[in-house]
Write a structure and sequence with these properties.
- The strands form 2 sheets. This protein has a 3-stranded antiparallel sheet with strand order 2-3-5. A two-stranded antiparallel sheet has the order 1-4.
- The chain is built from 5 helices and 5 strands, in the order αβαββαββαα.
- By secondary structure, it is of the alpha+beta class.
Length: 254
């Protein structure tokens, strides 16, 4: 069926009429920052602590706009008698954004999560040579990376988070065990001190009674007697001396 003459013009005029009836909104940039989608591809940020200089990002980049320099360092053995190891140390990580086509291949192939998308877009320069940003600038953009979206309710917990939580729980359990052991030792020490104090008190109470029981026989104090003054009291338990006969004339004496 042939189109009706003038139908395209009518559709265009309809769009124009609908647009004319809407309120015009002017973006107040740069005074007001625009609301960007959460997955906006602005620039690439570097988390250099995770970079192992594996060179995968530089090899897979279609534009060859990533420049990496590194050197090797010898790491001493972790235990006595072990073997020394060598590791790569990052010296330079730069991205030429005048060549980058923002394909995101470098971020996808990085096995250590060292590269991230950031919504930062205000990095225009007056000279094209200044669009090559070094790792210091890439590290500054790292703090503008949005948080990852929340997982589905039934999703499996990421392995990194599970490992970190397991380590944290293990450390917390060790600290709790140490605290409980310290409390138990303190309680035992207090109990031992209390027992020692009770033993000392018992010994102090038993000492006078022991001295009374070990006193020598015959040295006990005699009960008071009703003897007249000047007479010597006879101690109890000793035989009474014989009475002296009165003095007088003997038999046969005149």
């Amino acid at each position: 069926m042939a189109p009706i003459p003038g139908s395209g013009l009518a559709k265009g005029l309809a769009v124009t009429l609908r647009t004319m009836t809407k309120k015009t909104v002017t973006a107040q940039y740069p005074d007001v920052q625009p609301e960007l989608p959460p997955r906006t591809r602005g620039v690439i940020a570097l988390f250099e602590e995770n970079c192992t200089v594996c060179m995968l990002c530089a090899r897979e980049c279609p534009d060859w706009c990533i420049y990496i320099d590194s050197h090797k360092e010898t790491v001493p053995p972790a235990a006595p008698g072990g073997r020394e190891r060598s590791r790569n140390v990052l010296d330079r990580f730069a991205i030429d954004f005048s060549l980058c086509m923002y394909c995101g291949i470098c971020i996808e192939v990085c096995p250590f999560d060292a590269l991230f998308w950031t919504p930062e877009f205000e990095y225009a320069e007056t000279d094209i040579h200044e669009l090559t940003h070094e790792r210091d600038k890439l590290r500054e953009w790292m703090w503008t990376v949005p948080a990852p979206p929340a997982l589905d309710p039934g999703a499996e917990e990421p392995k990194e988070i599970a490992a970190a939580r397991k380590t944290a729980d293990k450390l917390a359990a060790e600290q709790t065990a140490k605290a409980e052991a310290a409390q138990a030792e303190a309680a035992q020490a207090e109990a031992a001190q209390a027992e020692a104090a009770q033993a000392e008190a018992a010994q102090a109470e038993a000492a006078p009674a022991a001295r009374d029981e070990t006193a020598p026989a015959g040295r006990t104090q005699a009960p008071p007697s009703d003897s007249a003054p000047g007479e010597q009291a006879v101690p109890s338990g000793e035989p009474e001396p014989p009475a002296t006969p009165p003095s007088g004339p003997k038999e046969g004496q005149s």
